[in-house]
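Give me structure tokens for this 141-residue protein.
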Amino acid sequence: LPGYGDSPPTGMVATQQGRVAFLEHVLEELGMQRPVLISPSMSGRFALPFLLARGDRLAGFVPIAPVGTRDYTAGQYQQVQTPTLILYGDRDTGLGHQALQSLLHLPRHHVIVLPDAGHACYLDKPGDFHRALLGFLGQLQ
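Here you go.
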């Protein structure tokens, strides 16, 4: 993502609208019609504003203890109709639980807590993570 890792910072993603436009551009360039957006940790700064503004473009949403959940109100989350699988590790006692409190306001959500997994639950328990993800994907239309 722009501004993370070794990528140079860019002014385009300095605002929520810019991050929405960035993700929209990526989806268009890849020719993706209704993807499932998977959002671990820092990518929440991009995924959450996209979900709230353009959730109708998504077939599903999978937040994994994303940052930025407190930036939005319960009412904003309640407007989203995108099927959502909330995933986090039970050892992620900080961000996982914090994000969950906000994400529970999404009306079409399901929660899976991976046992003995931390913040990067997909790395700690890849088999359990993939089973949960594939089960969710199999339920989408």
